[in-house]
Every structure is written in structure tokens, then in C-alpha cells.
Amino acid sequence: MRTLLTSLGASWLLASGLAGALELSSTDIEQNTLMDKRHEFQGFGCTGDNLSPQLSWSDAPEGTRAFALFAHDPDAPTGSGWWHWQVINIPADVTSLPRGAGDPARSLMPPASVQLNNDFGTTGFGGACTPIGRGEHRYRFTVHALSKPLELPDNASAAMVGYLVNAHSLESSTIEALYRRD
To answer: Are the beta carbons of 118 and 86 closer than 8 angstroms?
Structure first.
């Protein structure tokens, strides 16, 4: 009977999400809530501060050797969405990034981390920049716990980065924030 209760208790913990799943949080953005102008791109007609949000994560699974971080707008009118930020090889002992870490000039990323080109054609974070009057877009900030640091060819495409991250992702967590320009 004790084994059955222990098994049922463990099953409940896993099903309820209390068993220690990777969790992404932020002091700057919230699930299904509009981001503010600090996180809007500067360029392409947008006039924001282009600051990446503060992000923290916890409860990485055993075997995590590095993290990857993505910011993607699946609603961009491109047919494939828009990559706003791709970072790989964040060291396994790092559990947060400060606001503005996505600006390479600020040097706030941990050593060994690699920020890749976004779809604006720049390295690092490229903020939200929805077309005026086209409604809300979803911005998915996702952290992946990786089984190993990644090796990429120079100028790897976003698709290749996504493929390799997903191939080595042990677990992921997402905050889906919103943005619109009226």
C-alpha cells in the first residue's frame, strides 16, 4: 500500500508540474501581457529602446551542460515568423540574464555564450517591431537546457540553429509575451 501511495504521489507531482520542471521567469515580461516600449526595436520604423528583457530560469534537468535562448515572433508576415534573438552555449551554471544583455556592446552575456544574427540582420537582441495596425503579435521567449554546448558553422541559419538546439534540448520553458503598434 505504501508503494502504491508513493507511486501515486510521484505521478501527481509530475502531472501537476511540481516535480521540478525547467521554469522561465522575468521581472520585465509576463505570459499573455503586452511588453512595454523598452523591448521595442529601434529601426524599421520602430522607436523603442531595444532592450532584451531580464530573464531567469530554474530547475534545469540533470545532465544540462549549457542553455540556449530564443525570442521568436510566429505571427510575423513572413511565412516562417521572425527570429528576434538566438543565444547558444550559455554556461550551465548561469541561471539569469539582466535586462539589456542582448546588446553585444554592453558585454553583459556570460563568457562562452554566443549571440547569433537575428532576422533584422544584426547580432544580439532585436526587439519587437510589429507592423502598425496589424494587431498583437506573440513573442515567445524560450530557454532550452542542452545536453551539450553546440558547435555551429559561421553564419549558421536560424533553421540550422533551431534544428541543433532541438536535437540537444533536454527540456524547455517559454514565456509568450505580446506586442502591438497602433
So the answer is: yes
C-alpha cell at 164: 541543433
Q: Is 59 helix (H, G, I), strand (E, B) or coil?
A: coil
Rounded to an integer, what distance in angstroms lies between the CA atom of residue 37 and that of residue 47? Answer: 8
pTM: 0.88
Cα angle at 124 between 109 and 62, to 5 degrees? Answer: 50
Cβ burial 37-65 (10 Å sphere, 16+ → b, else e): ebbbbeeeebebebbbbbbebeebeeebb
- Domain ranges across the chain: 20-179
pLDDT 10s digits, 147-173: 999 999 888 999 999 999 999 999 999
Summarised one tens digit per residue, pLDDT across range 83-113 is 999 999 999 999 999 999 999 999 999 999 9
CATH of 20-179, one of 3.90.280.10, 3.90.850.10, 3.40.190.150, 3.40.640.10: 3.90.280.10
Q: What's the rounded mean pLDDT across residues 30-55? A: 96
